[in-house]
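Late entry, adenosine-5'-diphosphate complex.
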Amino acid sequence: MATLEINDLHVTVEAEGGAREILKGVDLTVKQGETHAIMGPNGSGKSTLAYSIAGHPKYTITGGTVTLDGEDVLEMTVDERARAGLFLAMQYPVEVPGVSVSNFLRTSATAMRGEAPKLRTWVKEVKGAMEQLHMDASFAERNVNEGFSGGEKKRHEILQLELLKPKVAILDETDSGLDVDALRVVSEGVNRVRESGEVGTLLITHYTRILRYIKPDFVHVFAQGRIAESGGAELADKLENEGYEAYVKGGVSA
Ligand code: ADP
Ligand code: MG
Ligand code: MG
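Prediction complete; structure with ligand written out below:
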């Protein structure tokens, strides 16, 4: 079983007046096959955690470790992280000019599998996955993220997840900006991947509503740069009723 282990992670960003510590000792273990939800108020550092694991250059690791099966993730290039089996949906949030979805997916699959998938079976795989996500076939020929709506971006994210079958996937605010129908389609995709038992998922969200469609094994409350409480799916219900106030001393950390 592949295991992503985050141990006492401290991260700073450059801000006006110097470096500011955003992550203040995050501890978390995600195993293949498990679904974890990280929930917390805006500005608590959830995206910083995702970007830090992704290797975004804006974030400086000042302490702690991140390992995948004992291998030091923080020492890996972004490509090496993908090859090791980490999927970070926010890795390519920008437009990739002149690269079609189809080519982009095949390149990503090649990077993760270590060899290019056979073209004919690949085309079928992509077609099947797109149908399940209720995506029009023409989508494959569009350029990555160019003029994508919020919903299309999220579907593209789940399409990658389904095709690449990583060991551990980190999905940041996959539910934001989705209408109820799109939310259901996206959740079904996450659940399909989950049922394979091969993927560990870290679902980062501000809202509880996606958890009506995806039942996490573990829920973690993120507040002021660290995990303030962990529990099972019932913790999400408590958050839905009571909000985050109890976890935030003196207002949201921002
Ligand atoms: P969340 O995803 O929980 O809403 P973020 O991780 O986006 O929180 O932000 C946490 C804090 O770190 C905020 O105060 C935010 O302004 C700050 N921050 C995050 N990224 C940057 C950055 N690249 N530059 C400056 N400040 C940042
Ligand atoms: Mg510490
Ligand atoms: Mg965020």
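Residues 3-97+166-179+186-247 form a domain with the Rossmann fold fold (CATH 3.40.50.300). Will revisit in the morning.
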